[in-house]
Specification:
Elements: E1 2-9, H1 13-24, E2 29-32, E3 44-46, E4 52-54, H2 67-76, E5 83-87, H3 91-94, E6 96-100, E7 103-106, H4 125-132, H5 147-155, H6 157-172, H7 181-184, H8 186-195, H9 198-211, H10 223-230, E8 233-238, H11 243-255, E9 259-261, E10 268-271, E11 277-280, E12 285-293, H12 297-305, H13 311-319, E13 322-333, E14 345-347, E15 359-362, H14 363-366, E16 372-381, H15 384-388, H16 395-410, E17 418-429, H17 435-448, E18 453-455, H18 465-478
Parallel strand pairs: 1-2, 1-12, 2-9, 6-14, 12-18
Antiparallel strand pairs: 3-4, 5-8, 6-7, 10-11, 11-12, 13-16, 13-17, 14-15, 15-16
EC number: 1.3.3.4
Catalytic activity: protoporphyrinogen IX + 3 O2 = protoporphyrin IX + 3 H2O2
Domain Amine oxidase: 13-429
């Protein structure tokens, strides 16, 4: 039986980051991944001629409380010189569209547009924002709500239907009528509780930030992150593709003698009376002082259920919903394909029922690749079964849907030079109303039961790359691994 300070279940970006920071502290670590590759949903398709497609995340945002951790990780891995970015002033950052009544409509993107009526939102946004200042304060006992209800309460149904709805479909492939505001946009929900008005909360935070000196000695700040703020980056990526992050993490783990088990699935976790855990892989058992579970909640639930731990833990894990997404990368030769249109892409509100896709990303508008135009068409999500059937895996169906979409919306009639179809099963967890409270109760139950177990990954604290890296690092650095 192999004995380790920690066993990490899952070789996606959360599991790799957890193992990396544990190994940096000199811990003896084993990482278990059920598939034949590491990296999880972070995946770059690299063609022989140097053209890349992103199957999972396409970019990273250098904003928010979790963004600094990713930038620090890139520096730790020596990837500073591979970073490529888009500034907020560039069309790929400014021009964002939605599909409305079969037309692509630009969303307001600058100060002057706040004062003008828009097709998407009707009356000028400034009127909506001013009116929000005087909205009735919500019930203080409200513990959570859907993003749709939240947006409607503060800004009206037009912004909820044509702004928040497509945005959430783009982020989570889910329904904003179900997604939790306290999980996905916690600062806004807390701002509502504190100030009643979201606009008041944002103004207060802005004043607070300008009047408060950041104590940079109390926190390690990334040079990449500082540069991104100073130069006003909107998004960034890596020149060889985002999978470079997980590849470099894997290389570092091998250098540090982390034992990596690929094509290996945990059959059970046995929590012993002596405070240790034994992970059974079938062909080998691994004893650990602590288990970091970075596998999806739906995979961990059955393992926990076998372990005779309090029922509430497994019940929560098995209750976290996930959605399937089909992704089609289309590659065209020649910059004339989009007829000069430069934009981030477009998203499709759920009420535009005639359309079968979630949105289309104009990838090479953000990160150019030679003379090519690469578009990524995303479809399915919460609506996968309704649109394509539960067991649909036929790449031709998704390819033809993508071709039809770009022809109808963008006028592209030519065939792509190349294309790549991916069907990503259960790829995005849905943090629905009540998720945060249920997660807190689950973690308290784990703590009360003295289980050497930490929950890590997109199933729990956040679904972005920034969230996954930040919370994985925090878990690795804060957990006591003494026997």
């Amino acid at each position: 039986m192999g004995k380790y300070s920690a066993v990490v279940l899952g070789g996606g970006i959360s599991g790799l980051t957890t193992a990396y920071y544990l190994s940096r502290m000199g811990r003896k670590v084993a990482l278990v991944e059920s598939s034949n590759r590491l990296g999880g949903w972070v995946r770059t398709i690299r063609n022989p001629d140097g053209i890349n497609y992103e199957v999972g995340p396409r970019s990273v945002r250098p904003v928010g409380s979790t963004a600094n951790a990713t930038c620090l990780l890139l520096e730790d891995l020596g990837l500073e010189n591979e970073v490529t970015f888009v500034k907020k002033t560039e069309p790929a950052a400014r021009v964002r569209m939605i599909l409305l009544d079969k037309q692509l409509v630009e969303l307001p993107a600058n100060i002057s547009s706040l004062f003008l009526p828009t097709t998407a939102f009707g009356k000028p946004l400034i009127a909506t924002l001013m009116g929000e200042l005087f909205k009735k304060r919500p019930d203080p006992a409200l513990e959570d709500d859907s993003l749709y209800n939240f947006a409607t309460r503060h800004f009206g149904s037009k912004i909820a239907d044509n702004g928040i709805d497509p945005l959430i479909r783009g982020i989570t492939a889910g329904d904003c009528r179900e997604i939790s505001v306290s999980s996905l946009m916690a600062p806004l929900f807390e701002g509502e509780k504190t100030h009643g008005s979201v606009v008041k909360a944002m103004l207060a935070n802005s004043l607070s930030s300008s009047n408060t000196k950041i104590d940079r000695q109390s926190m390690e700040w990334s040079k990449i992150f500082a540069t991104a703020q100073a130069r006003k980056w909107a998004i960034y990526s890596l020149k060889p593709g985002l999978e470079t992050i997980t590849e470099r993490l894997t290389d570092e783990l091998r250098k540090r003698d982390c034992k990596i088990y690929s094509n290996s699935k945990a059959n059970s976790i046995d929590f012993k009376m002596n405070g240790k855990a034994v992970v059974d892989l079938g062909f080998e058992k691994l004893e650990a002082n602590h288990v970091f579970a970075a596998i999806p909640a739906y995979s961990l639930g059955p393992l926990i259920e076998k372990s005779k731990v309090p029922r509430g833990i497994a019940s929560f894990l098995k209750s976290v919903p996930f959605v399937d997404v089909a992704v089609v990368n289309l590659e065209y030769r020649g910059q004339d394909v989009l007829n000069g249109r430069k934009a981030f892409g477009y998203l499709v509100p759920s009420h535009q029922r005639y359309c079968s896709v979630l949105g289309v990303s104009f990838d090479t508008c953000s990160f150019p690749q030679k003379d090519r135009v690469i578009l990524t068409v995303m479809m399915g999500g919460k609506w996968f079964d309704e649109l394509f059937g539960t067991n649909c895996n036929d790449p031709e169906i998704f390819f033809s849907t993508a071709r039809r979409e770009v022809q109808e919306r963008l006028g592209i009639t030519r065939s792509p030079e190349r294309y790549f179809v991916s069907v990503l099963r259960k790829c995005i967890p849905q943090h629905v109303i009540g998720h945060k409270a249920k997660l807190l109760r689950c973690r308290k139950e784990i703590e009360r039961s003295n289980l050497p177990l930490t929950l890590v990954g997109a199933s729990y604290d956040g679904i972005s790359i920034n969230d996954c890296v930040h919370y994985a690092k925090a878990a690795a650095l804060s957990t006591n691994l003494s026997s």
